[in-house]
Design goal:
Elements lengths: L7 E5 L3 H13 L5 E6 L3 E3 L4 H5 L9 E3 L8 E5 L5 E2 L4 E4 L2 E4 L2 E4 L21 H5 L10 E3 L6 E3 L1
The structure holds flavin-adenine dinucleotide.
């Protein structure tokens, strides 16, 4: 029987699902196979802790980790937007670079339909970490100091 040559698994999305999948694959696969993770932002953010930022129990910086650190575990990280997936050829083009895969994991998450809930788009709820960190963007409409040292609540 012919030996299996090195294959590439392309994981699209560096959120909870994508990072977990990439880690699991990297641990389970022989090193001749490549695991490549693509994400538009350079940081992983643990969204489930957004509430702790709002209530002052965590700082925004405590929820994020640089995705390129996964390189130490043997996961190649590509930062860029995935504009289109060709499922027939398992190819994506990221910022002009074509990436081919033998296997695709699509973990791009969900987007908010902000237009369907009156006031939601204006409330800037799309990216609470960005809103919670004054270095990263404008604040929400109204902000109250949180109970903790670092936090604040936003509506
Ligand atoms: C406040 C809050 C509390 C929560 N609490 C819980 C909880 O207690 N328990 C629980 O199980 N879940 C909880 N969740 C839900 C949980 O966070 C999500 O279900 C989970 O993050 C989904 O993971 P995902 O990998 O599918 O998507 P995401 O985490 O959204 O990751 C998708 C990634 O893909 C990237 N991406 C998207 N489109 C593109 C593109 N075109 N090109 C490149 N990159 C792209 C995004 O930047 C992102 O990094 C909570 C969520 C919130 C907001």
């Amino acid at each position: 029987m012919a030996a299996v040559t090195g294959q590439t698994v392309l994981v699209l999305g560096g959120g909870v699902g994508g990072v977990a999948a990439a880690n699991r694959l990297r641990r389970g696969l022989d090193r001749r196979h490549k695991v490549v993770l693509v994400n538009r932002d350079p940081d992983f953010t643990f969204a489930a802790s957004y509430l702790w930022v709002m209530s002052g129990r965590r700082r925004a910086a405590q929820l994020t980790r640089p995705l390129p650190k996964l390189g130490r575990r043997g996961i190649e990280v590509v930062i860029g937007q995935v504009p289109h997936i060709d499922p027939a050829t398992r190819t994506v083009t990221v910022d002009g670079r074509e990436l081919n895969a033998d296997h695709l994991v699509v973990a791009l998450g969900a987007d908010y339909a902000t237009g369907r809930v009156p006031g939601l788009a204006r409330a800037h709820l799309r990216d609470p970490v960005r809103r919670a960190d004054p270095r990263r963007g404008p604040g929400p409409d109204r902000v109250w100091p949180g109970r903790g040292r670092h936090g604040r609540s936003a509506v």
